[in-house]
Target: CTP synthase
Amino acid sequence: MEDLMLIRSSFMRRIISSAINKAIAKQKYGITVNLDDIRAEWSDKEQKVKVHLELDAEMPKADLMDILKKAGIC
Model:
């Protein structure tokens, strides 16, 4: 059995966006995130949750380059 949760209200998206922004701020990046869509699916069989976030992020080029370097991309 699987459960699916879609969060469509702008109120809940703002709350989740705020939590994401606070978590990013702790990493010392100047990134602003606006959450557009969130979907979460739970599978009893696999005991896993799959989360899909659709968001817009705005950041300075230096922060993007630092993130890419830490990920081993450049």
